[in-house]
TrEMBL record:
InterPro entries assigned to the protein according to its UniProt record, in alphabetical order: BTN3A2-like_Ig-C, Ig-like_dom, Ig-like_dom_sf, Ig-like_fold, Ig_sub, Ig_sub2, Ig_V-set, IgSF_BTN/MOG
Pfam families reported in the protein's UniProt record: C2-set_3, V-set
Principal location class: membrane
Name of this chain's protein: Ig-like domain-containing protein
Example of a GO biological process term: regulation of cytokine production
Amino acid sequence: MMYIYFICFIFFVPLAAQFTVIGPDQPVTAIVGEDTVLPCHLSPRMSAENMEVRWFRSEFTSFVHLYQHGQDQYGQQMPEYHGRTEFLKAGIMDGNVALKIVNVRQSDEGKYRCFVQDGVFYEEAVLELKVEASGSAPQISVEGYQDGGIQMVCQLAGWYPEPEVLWRDRSGQLLSSSTKTKSKDGRGLFEIKSSIIITESSNQNLSCSIRNAYFNLEKEPSTFYISGEIQTCSLVGPDHPVTAIVGEEIVLPCHLSPRMSAEKMEMTWFRSQISPFVHHYSDGKDQYGLQMPEFQGRTELLKDGLLNGSVALRILSIRPSDEGQYHCLVLDGIFYEEALLDLKVAGLGSVPLISVERHQDGGIWVVCQSADWYPEAEVLWRDLSGRHLPSFSETTSQGENSLFETETALIVTELSNQKLSCCIRNTVLNQEKESAVYIAGQSPSKPHTELSTPRKKTKHRKKRTETSVVDIS
């Protein structure tokens, strides 16, 4: 008799704990640059040491922090949280699964999910993190005269979220600002510039304070005191463009009117923006910290004229890139004025070089070359009687130094005792340079090879004479 035995194995699977995950019912507030703790715990209180605890934002797999199998896991942690999170294990036996974030950033703001799983059972809680940055104290400065008053500006940086700018008069009454501009720096923090125009300037107290409306925090106000009436003064520059020669130096004139000492004032010469500048003078000396690189070692404020109100600037070794508009700005306490002038740059190039190249189309191909002109020069051919001759071709190129080189060609068909001149003219300076060539003899029926030999051409270049004779008979 055969007996068949069946063996039955019974596995006992522990039941997963039942719990609720609880987070704060109010947003958690954090300060930029400081540490914060995101609270979260199990209810009822029980050990979470052998559970999975996952903190994440919008995506489950790309987490802020993960605790699993009794230790922290960093394999798929969000890059922006690397080295900035800590799971607080001290309270884990009591069901505390709080997370610390160090060196809080503005980008950390938003919703977080606290997810806890034990076996097949899981629960999660959602909490919100608010980030705040209390930046620099407001600074008041005088911008200048506008609309019959003085334009005051209040500036601040490093705030989050966007703060409220409050202007008040000496009695504490709120004043309306005229303009406001805002921007964000690389950390996402706000930079604010608010301006107001004051029309009654006699003994006027003015304050600017900053308030973070969300956190109801206010920065200590900055106060500016205007005493007495403003003296009317202006800054005067030339009423016509100033012309400079490439390689030489130029003085950009500018002075106060009426004449008064500018020795203790602040002066800035700049182009399209005030910083970086062309030249800056303050506290009785030149300041070079934010000078434009292309002007380093090439500018000089002429201090001999400061006592007489002159704030002229000398620029050395003029370049074509120096051409354009310049702003002359002077600030003295609450006084501010600015003048605008235009700089024209010109380069008087080399004497034209004329060479006879070859026979072509029944005539002689004559070329005129010249270099180092600015701006692009005007080229004229003239015959013996001074009449203009049309060129056959003309090419112009600009070198790395921004100066122009020109080459123009002419075909001469009537060669009996023919005199030609090539004139290059700078239209800005209204100056010109001219060279002439005298071609003697008759045009041969067949071309002479010696007319196109490189040696003759090179010899002519080396002499660079203003008048030369070529015998083609």
